[in-house]
TrEMBL record:
One of its GO terms (biological process) is methylation. Its EC number is 2.1.1.272. GO terms for molecular function: heme binding; iron-sulfur cluster binding; methyltransferase activity; oxidoreductase activity. Pfam families: NIR_SIR. InterPro entries: NO2/SO3_Rdtase_4Fe4S_dom. Coiled coil: none annotated. It is an enzyme of class 2 (transferase). It comes from Paenibacillus solanacearum. Keywords: Methyltransferase, Transferase. This is Cobalt-factor III methyltransferase. Residues 80-204 form the Nitrite/sulphite reductase 4Fe-4S domain.
């Protein structure tokens, strides 16, 4: 029998990415005992269940306030800090807009995008393919982080002091360039090495 896999998250709020008990109760009820639920390293749960029942289950999960995304070769939902400085100061509205703009886009390989609301960078954005750090009234963007493999590495500063109105276009531009020029299953860090950071800056910083 055919199965369908999709990703589930609780969204984010001050205090971090947290599933509410009632959301987990709904999840366990609607996907059924035959479903497989996998915890990922990017704050998503992967649910694999019978395809014929998936659409009804998805509707009920969304009614419970859960956010759903495709699983596999896509950009992941935004991985954030805990907004410990408060929603306004840490830029939660910008983070939500960024999540809506980038999550679930097809990509040559899974793409992790991190966001931290201050220079403490507790969301570990420098370990993500693309990392955004709010620096008072502007944003620093890092690229090339890699938390996995024997050659794990921190991302490097790609653009500094990016104004809020340019943040989404720059990040979307990076993803679009990866979509257009990346090789199938090519890691983003390897892609950067191949095309060079300067080429990427020319493509997105105009």
């Amino acid at each position: 029998m055919a199965t369908l896999k999709f990703a589930v998250t609780p969204g984010f709020e001050v205090g971090g990415t947290m599933f509410k008990p009632e959301q987990l109760a709904v999840l366990g009820t609607v996907v059924g005992s035959d479903a497989r639920i996998e915890m990922t390293t990017f704050k998503q749960l992967y649910v694999e269940m019978q395809e014929e029942q998936a659409e009804e289950a998805k509707a009920k999960l969304q009614q419970a306030g859960l956010a759903l995304y495709p699983a596999g070769m896509y950009t992941k939902s935004l991985i954030t800090c805990n907004f410990c400085k408060g929603a306004a100061e840490a830029g939660m509205s910008t983070a939500k807009a960024l999540d809506e703009a980038v999550a679930g886009l097809a990509a040559p390989s899974p793409l992790k995008i991190g966001y931290s609301g201050c220079a403490l960078a507790t969301g570990e954005p420098l370990l993500k393919d693309i990392g955004v750090v709010k620096m008072r009234d502007a944003y620093d963007i890092y690229i090339g982080g890699d938390a996995k493999s024997l050659k794990a590495a921190l991302g490097f500063l790609f653009l500094e002091r990016v104004p809020e109105e340019r943040l989404l276009p720059v990040v979307r531009g990076l993803i679009q360039y990866f979509q257009d020029h990346g090789k199938k299953k090519e890691k983003f860090s390897k892609f950067i090495e191949r095309v060079t950071a300067e080429t990427l800056r020319e493509a997105v910083a105009g």
